[in-house]
Amino acid sequence: MTKRRNEWLDWIKALIVAAILAIVIRVFLFAPIVVDGPSMLPTLENGDHMIVNKFSYLVGEPSRFDIVVFHATETKDYIKRVIGLPGDHIEYKDDTLYVNGDPIEEPFLQERLDRLSENQSYTFDFRLQDIKGNYKTIPENHVLVLGDNRNNSTDSRMLGLIPIDRIVGETRFIYWPMERFGFVD
Q: In this entry, which stretches build a coiled coil (predicted)?
């Protein structure tokens, strides 16, 4: 009888430890998210299931072109790409990103840009000053984010600059559907 009781206690302990580990991992390290909508096409598709790395920004800062998940509202998280960092002046002119006056390539958009006719624009011209807040440069602890599908994305052009403390984490790994399994550039 005692042996059977000890086995049950061992199983209960193991399950409690596993549950605690799962909660710690989910809350502090990694979380699943599902892409909702077309705002990150062609990079991410509606329904892509991804893993959010929450740990990356506990020890570091976002980098230009990171794909991040952030709290857009109390109940809704968005997935967008970091375009502008603290201290940057951002401008788009003729589908070219300028950071502090220097043109910067966006290789993840090249396929879409190549398909445009001469009189079409993929990213409408704007300057940082055109965004809510009328900033000359992005202030400390904020980033400017855009969706890769520039004509169909609710991003910093509408939401304003995103405080870094609202960023949940970085996402680069699709685990479902299986035909899209892998890392995203």
A: none
